[in-house]
Amino acid sequence: MTVNDRVRRVALRWLVGCALLATGGPAAAQGAAPAQPTAGAPAAQTRTTWYFYTVNWGSQDEFLDLFQKNHYPVLKAQVQAGRFASLRAWVPRYHGDGRADWTFVVEIVERLGVTGIPTEQEFIARLYPDQETFRQEERRRFELLVAHWDVPLSPVDFDTRKATP
Protein backbone atom coordinates (compact mmCIF):
# COMPACT_ATOMS: atom_id res chain seq x y z
CA MET A 1 0.00 0.00 0.00
CA THR A 2 1.44 3.35 -0.99
CA VAL A 3 1.55 6.44 1.22
CA ASN A 4 -1.13 8.04 -0.98
CA ASP A 5 -3.38 4.98 -0.48
CA ARG A 6 -2.92 5.23 3.29
CA VAL A 7 -3.69 8.95 3.27
CA ARG A 8 -6.85 8.32 1.21
CA ARG A 9 -7.96 5.58 3.63
CA VAL A 10 -7.44 7.81 6.68
CA ALA A 11 -9.25 10.69 4.98
CA LEU A 12 -12.11 8.39 3.99
CA ARG A 13 -12.45 7.08 7.56
CA TRP A 14 -12.50 10.64 8.88
CA LEU A 15 -15.16 11.71 6.36
CA VAL A 16 -17.34 8.66 7.05
CA GLY A 17 -17.02 9.25 10.80
CA CYS A 18 -17.96 12.93 10.44
CA ALA A 19 -20.92 12.09 8.22
CA LEU A 20 -22.19 9.46 10.65
CA LEU A 21 -21.78 11.76 13.64
CA ALA A 22 -23.52 14.60 11.82
CA THR A 23 -26.49 12.36 10.99
CA GLY A 24 -26.64 10.72 14.41
CA GLY A 25 -24.84 7.59 13.22
CA PRO A 26 -26.25 4.28 12.05
CA ALA A 27 -28.57 4.01 15.07
CA ALA A 28 -30.37 7.20 14.07
CA ALA A 29 -30.86 5.87 10.57
CA GLN A 30 -32.49 2.78 12.05
CA GLY A 31 -34.78 4.83 14.31
CA ALA A 32 -33.21 3.63 17.55
CA ALA A 33 -34.78 4.91 20.72
CA PRO A 34 -32.45 5.81 23.59
CA ALA A 35 -32.46 3.52 26.60
CA GLN A 36 -34.98 4.65 29.19
CA PRO A 37 -33.88 4.87 32.82
CA THR A 38 -35.83 3.08 35.55
CA ALA A 39 -38.32 5.33 37.35
CA GLY A 40 -36.49 7.34 40.01
CA ALA A 41 -33.07 6.22 38.78
CA PRO A 42 -30.57 8.58 37.18
CA ALA A 43 -30.07 8.25 33.43
CA ALA A 44 -27.51 5.56 32.68
CA GLN A 45 -24.23 6.67 31.18
CA THR A 46 -23.42 4.85 27.96
CA ARG A 47 -20.51 4.50 25.58
CA THR A 48 -21.04 3.70 21.91
CA THR A 49 -18.32 1.78 20.08
CA TRP A 50 -18.25 0.72 16.46
CA TYR A 51 -16.32 -2.49 15.75
CA PHE A 52 -15.13 -2.54 12.14
CA TYR A 53 -14.09 -5.66 10.24
CA THR A 54 -12.46 -5.97 6.83
CA VAL A 55 -13.03 -9.49 5.55
CA ASN A 56 -11.01 -11.23 2.83
CA TRP A 57 -12.77 -10.94 -0.52
CA GLY A 58 -15.02 -13.96 -1.03
CA SER A 59 -15.13 -14.87 2.67
CA GLN A 60 -17.93 -12.55 3.81
CA ASP A 61 -20.60 -15.25 4.14
CA GLU A 62 -18.31 -17.61 6.05
CA PHE A 63 -17.30 -14.77 8.39
CA LEU A 64 -20.94 -13.76 9.00
CA ASP A 65 -21.92 -17.42 9.59
CA LEU A 66 -19.19 -17.82 12.23
CA PHE A 67 -19.97 -14.44 13.80
CA GLN A 68 -23.67 -15.31 13.98
CA LYS A 69 -22.98 -18.77 15.43
CA ASN A 70 -20.28 -17.92 17.99
CA HIS A 71 -20.06 -14.22 18.78
CA TYR A 72 -23.57 -12.83 18.28
CA PRO A 73 -25.09 -15.07 21.01
CA VAL A 74 -22.45 -13.82 23.48
CA LEU A 75 -23.23 -10.19 22.62
CA LYS A 76 -27.00 -10.83 22.72
CA ALA A 77 -26.68 -12.46 26.16
CA GLN A 78 -24.93 -9.31 27.38
CA VAL A 79 -27.81 -7.19 26.03
CA GLN A 80 -30.31 -9.41 27.83
CA ALA A 81 -28.25 -9.22 31.04
CA GLY A 82 -28.20 -5.41 30.89
CA ARG A 83 -24.50 -4.78 30.14
CA PHE A 84 -25.32 -3.43 26.67
CA ALA A 85 -28.22 -1.09 25.90
CA SER A 86 -28.24 -2.04 22.23
CA LEU A 87 -26.49 -4.06 19.57
CA ARG A 88 -26.72 -3.44 15.82
CA ALA A 89 -24.76 -4.53 12.75
CA TRP A 90 -24.40 -3.31 9.18
CA VAL A 91 -22.82 -4.27 5.89
CA PRO A 92 -22.31 -1.71 3.12
CA ARG A 93 -25.02 -1.72 0.48
CA TYR A 94 -22.54 -1.45 -2.40
CA HIS A 95 -19.00 -2.60 -3.04
CA GLY A 96 -16.15 -0.66 -4.61
CA ASP A 97 -14.57 2.67 -3.75
CA GLY A 98 -15.80 4.10 -0.51
CA ARG A 99 -16.18 0.82 1.31
CA ALA A 100 -12.69 -0.49 0.83
CA ASP A 101 -11.97 0.07 4.52
CA TRP A 102 -14.62 -2.24 5.98
CA THR A 103 -17.06 -4.98 5.05
CA PHE A 104 -18.94 -5.39 8.37
CA VAL A 105 -19.53 -3.12 11.37
CA VAL A 106 -21.12 -3.79 14.76
CA GLU A 107 -22.38 -0.98 17.01
CA ILE A 108 -22.52 -1.71 20.72
CA VAL A 109 -23.96 0.76 23.21
CA GLU A 110 -22.50 -0.22 26.57
CA ARG A 111 -24.06 0.80 29.86
CA LEU A 112 -21.31 2.13 32.10
CA GLY A 113 -21.15 1.31 35.78
CA VAL A 114 -23.33 -1.80 35.53
CA THR A 115 -22.35 -4.42 38.08
CA GLY A 116 -23.24 -8.00 38.91
CA ILE A 117 -23.24 -9.23 35.32
CA PRO A 118 -21.18 -12.27 34.28
CA THR A 119 -18.02 -11.63 32.27
CA GLU A 120 -17.87 -12.32 28.56
CA GLN A 121 -15.80 -15.45 29.31
CA GLU A 122 -18.50 -16.70 31.69
CA PHE A 123 -21.15 -16.23 29.00
CA ILE A 124 -18.94 -18.13 26.53
CA ALA A 125 -18.47 -21.01 28.97
CA ARG A 126 -22.25 -21.26 29.47
CA LEU A 127 -23.21 -20.94 25.81
CA TYR A 128 -20.50 -23.23 24.37
CA PRO A 129 -19.82 -26.38 26.40
CA ASP A 130 -17.58 -27.66 23.56
CA GLN A 131 -14.84 -25.09 24.12
CA GLU A 132 -12.42 -26.71 21.66
CA THR A 133 -14.86 -26.35 18.74
CA PHE A 134 -15.66 -22.80 19.84
CA ARG A 135 -11.96 -21.86 19.92
CA GLN A 136 -11.32 -23.45 16.50
CA GLU A 137 -14.25 -21.62 14.92
CA GLU A 138 -13.25 -18.31 16.49
CA ARG A 139 -9.69 -18.80 15.21
CA ARG A 140 -11.11 -19.41 11.75
CA ARG A 141 -13.31 -16.29 11.99
CA PHE A 142 -10.25 -14.16 12.65
CA GLU A 143 -8.24 -15.90 9.90
CA LEU A 144 -10.83 -14.51 7.47
CA LEU A 145 -10.03 -10.92 8.43
CA VAL A 146 -7.77 -8.48 6.66
CA ALA A 147 -8.22 -5.92 9.46
CA HIS A 148 -10.27 -5.18 12.56
CA TRP A 149 -10.46 -1.99 14.62
CA ASP A 150 -12.66 -0.54 17.34
CA VAL A 151 -13.81 3.08 17.41
CA PRO A 152 -15.17 4.30 20.77
CA LEU A 153 -17.23 7.40 19.97
CA SER A 154 -17.49 10.67 21.85
CA PRO A 155 -20.67 12.66 21.18
CA VAL A 156 -20.57 16.23 19.91
CA ASP A 157 -23.48 18.41 21.04
CA PHE A 158 -23.56 21.35 18.65
CA ASP A 159 -26.34 23.01 20.66
CA THR A 160 -24.03 23.48 23.67
CA ARG A 161 -20.60 23.47 22.01
CA LYS A 162 -18.77 26.78 21.93
CA ALA A 163 -16.92 27.49 18.72
CA THR A 164 -13.26 28.42 19.03
CA PRO A 165 -12.38 31.94 17.86
Offer a concise description of the structure:
This protein has helices at residues 3-22, 25-29, 60-81, 120-127, 131-143, and strands at residues 46-55, 84-90, 104-111, 145-152. The protein has 165 residues and is an alpha+beta fold.
Question: What percent strand?
Answer: 15-25%
Number of strands: 4
Shape: flat
- Figure out the total of helices: 5
Q: How would you describe the overall organization of this protein?
A:
The chain has 165 residues and is α+β, with helices and mostly antiparallel strands. The chain has a single domain, classed as 2-Layer Sandwich (Alpha-Beta Plaits). The protein has 5 helices and 4 strands; from the N terminus they run H-H-E-H-E-E-H-H-E. The protein has a 4-stranded antiparallel β-sheet, with helices on one face. Helix 3 packs across helix 4 (120-127) and helix 3 crosses helix 5 (131-143). The longest helix is centred in the middle third of the chain and has 22 residues, at 60-81. The N and C termini lie far apart (39 Å). Residues 1-42 have low confidence and may be disordered.
